[in-house]
Structures are given as structure tokens and as C-alpha cells.
Amino acid sequence: MQRCRIKGFTLIEVLVAMFVLALGVAGAAGTQLSSARLRQQAALASEAVQLAASLGARMRVNAVQMGLPDASNSYLGFDYDAAGGEPDGPPVQCFGAADCTPSQMAAFDLHEAARIVRGAFPGGRIVVCRDGGGWNAALQAFEWTCSGGAGAPVVVKLGWRAPAAATAAPPIVTMVVAG
Known about the structure:
15% strand, 3 helices, 41% helix, elongated, alpha+beta
């Protein structure tokens, strides 16, 4: 009696191969998703640095306002959270040839920054203050609270919430704009 050997794959081998292929496809999809999130966060961080630098440049140009004591300086103490709604409108539109006082220019600059934070950063928040510390070594993150003090540098802090997060994230960008 001669045995007939059939060459080929058995059903179990085909199922194992399909399972391995499915794992590979799931892994590739997870990598793509992670890469898309990282790309979005990198783009937001880049835009945040540009916004902080732009606001810092506007503050340096408005030397009269920056020369005022902290209590009178319109820039210092600015804290806007997009979760609170639309920013208040500026008292005067300081575009082009508009004749604005340094205080009106500061209000306009802050309104523009708040408008950009509201539109470009999901659940964004921006703070301008004097801060000598900011970095919390225990949390390994920056803090929203400002230490203040006349000798502390002026900083712009900017952060946003992750789409799934309900609570405020720590600042992502903290930039010193004036010594």
C-alpha cells in the first residue's frame, strides 16, 4: 500500500500566517498613528515658539510700556485661557498708520496673541509675567504660576491641552523675552 503525500499548506499553517500578517498590519497602523500625533505636537510647538517670539518682539518694540512699573505695565499679568471663551476685543485696532498710545498698542498685541492661541492651539493658554523659576524639578515640567519679583525676567508661557485631556497641561513653551 502506497501512501499518497500531498504537498502544500495545511489550514493551521495558513491561519498562523494570517495571524502574523494581521499583527504586522496592526503594528504598522499603530506606528502611523503615533507618528501623526508626534508630527502634530511638533507643529504646535513650532508655532508656539514663533508666537512667543513674535509677542516678545512686540513687547521689546513698545519700550515705553515695558519701562513702566510692573503694576502699570499692560503686558505683565496677562493670562488668557481659551477654555474661557473668546478674548475681549482690543480698545483700538492698531493696524498700519493708526495712531495708538503705548497702552493701546499693548492691549492690541495681547488681543492678537489671545486670538491666535484660541484659533491655533486646542485648549490653549498663554501667560506673560515675571518669573524667576518656572521649572518644577519634582514634576519635571514648567509651571503656570509666576514667582514675580522686580529682578525676575519677563517670560511668555504657552501651552495647550491634548485632545483627550480635560485638565490644563503644563506650559509647553516658556520663553524669556526681557531680562
